[in-house]
Fold this sequence. Notes:
Distance between the termini: 54 Å
Mean pLDDT: 95
Structural class: alpha/beta
Bound molecules: iron/sulfur cluster
Radius of gyration: 24 Å
Low-confidence stretches: none
Shape: globular
Amino acid sequence: LARRSERRVDTICPYCGVGCAITVHVAEGRVLRVDGADGPANAGRLCVKGRFGLDYVHHPRRLTTPLLRRPGVPKDPALLLPGPDGRVNEDAWWAQFRPATWEEALDAAAAGLARVRDAAWAAGVHGRAMPVAGFGSAKGSNEEAYLFQKLIRSAFRTHNVDHCTRLCHASSVAALMEAIGSGAVSNPVRDCALADLIVVIGANPVQNHPVAATWIKNAVRRGARLVLIDPRRTELARVAWRTLTFTPGTDVALLNALLHVIVSEGLVNDAFVAARVQPGDLQALRAHLQAFTPEAMAPLCGIDAATLREVARAYATAPASLIFWGMGVAQHSHGTDNARALIALALLTGQIGRPGTGLHPLRGQNNVQGASDAGLIPMVLPDYHRVTDPAHRAVAEAAWGLPAGFLPAEPGLTVVEILHAAAEGRIRAMLIQGENPAMSDPDAAHARAGLARLEHLVVSDLFLTETAALADVVLPAAAWLEKTGTVTNTDRTVQLGRPVLSPPGQARADAWILEQLARRLGLNWHYDIDPLGGAPTADSGIGRVFDEMAGLMPALSGLRWQRLLRIGAITHPVPSADDPGHPVVFTERFPTPDGRAHLVPARLGAPAEPADSAYPYVLITGRQLEHWHTGAMTRRSAVLDALEPVPHVSLHPQTLQSLGVRVGERVCLRSRRGSVTAAVRADEAVPAGVAFLPFAYAEAAANLLTIAALDPVAKIAEVKYCAVAIEPV
Ligand code: SF4
């Protein structure tokens, strides 16, 4: 019977930025199985999350009705902490709320936001000082990201709108924009098939972008040389030509040493620099690099000078070299400088603008590229048009029916700044859609205190997350598999997602929720979005949103909904209606005013909180193969949860020995900001004196330990490095 009613629907995996195409087999409202489809990023391949991790949509604790906080029930961040049995008490979270109708919940959500807004407006306050902010999501579609930033900007007259890119690649994007005028990748992952040398730095694609890792391994099998640069000896080391396990936090020392070799040994591509780089930049960089000899940097970064010279020569002289990087580069208080050095490597050697070369910051979430493109960032409007530019503001105001001069000229607050402001009472109301800052933000106790202090917090999500547990109004959202929308993967490929299932109970599509809130906040929105996700038809409300968004984005000027329905996927920029898309960009010029790039010297920075006698270990946080980000989805997937059911801290066997603990025993990790306990796992890939803890587990929330030190340019937090003490319990 199940077979007779079986349907197959093609859509996109909801997890990582690789953006694998999937075919979902469903019957009687349940996912039966998932196959890899022949998408541009995966050609049928899938990892364990895409193949077995979609059953979270059927989890019994899905939100299926709107919830309102019961009168008089305080918001208590202590509820989020594990009890004496080591488990968090989700039942206590649920007991704070009562069910409500959609009318009641939407009215309450909008009224609370409007109350704070109207008081601010009455006092003449708007812009950065507006006490309202919003976090959209890179888990949602492009259309949802676009509507979210439009709602915050139009209804509250502020750019206090951001999303998880702030904690992901904000530093990479800042450095790329500064150097080459675009934050996007230059070449797709699959271009490694054309590379002679591949650098993977600060990234663990086997765990975090598994299908991308398969393309890299294929390239190595074909004969490409892989250089792995990471404090941890990650799994790609097995196939690497050289593995540089450097001292955490010394990225600039290592990379500037490579640059020093290139400028001092005549390895600069003079023709490329003359044609494509600002005059004078090379001389300035050469002067800056003088002191960064491999011999001087070796003691700092822990890599011997001969290896640094060998790697620099190999990168510069290979016919085609391609760099991938990840959070290990970006999530530092000197993350922008780390990325500046990587960009300089490519520019000095001309390893960009051709197939098999380039710069590829591996995007984390499935739509972090698209959400950023859509303007879900406090400094820029759609397509990275700066809010400081009056001409760009005027275009948005005209398109959105706002009075001239309505949009503020100053950028808004960023993610961490917003939660600091909430803790200080300067942000008093928030709308959060699909993000879980109570788990993902650095110094989580401080972030949770800020969320709890808000006068009015509206959260829409699939589950009663740690963040939703601190809300006043909780709105049940449709999952990715339950709605139509587009997402843009790490390669800049825009792909159409189709609904596989109907939302459970009263769960509704986030785009519909935004339209309903906008109308209640006085905006004249009439997209007529289907509350149940809807099919991707020529006349769908989501299509109207897509066309409005694409009309504001030169990168999508040749792409409209009708065409996307027909072709399903295309890589932007798409400048005309018959353009096939551009997987490789910057072939002739960079998107800067004069087409030339900037070489920006990278300054040597130190971690904000080095280890010391009181906190003698370095903590690195990150993801693991089976669990995605804060675990909201994967920990509710039966297979993934069975594979990795409890948190572990990974330590080198020497560290275990010095602590006197054995594998499986529990330790307490303590930083200046908080403490967690977890069982230990022996891992020779982690350097001695370093601890690795995934941030997916509420029972041992890694971000209770991390520091909210920010990169001064990109405002990204240093969640890859803080000092901790470790004691047996
Ligand atoms: Fe999904 Fe990423 Fe795995 Fe592909 S590699 S199946 S997009 S999680």
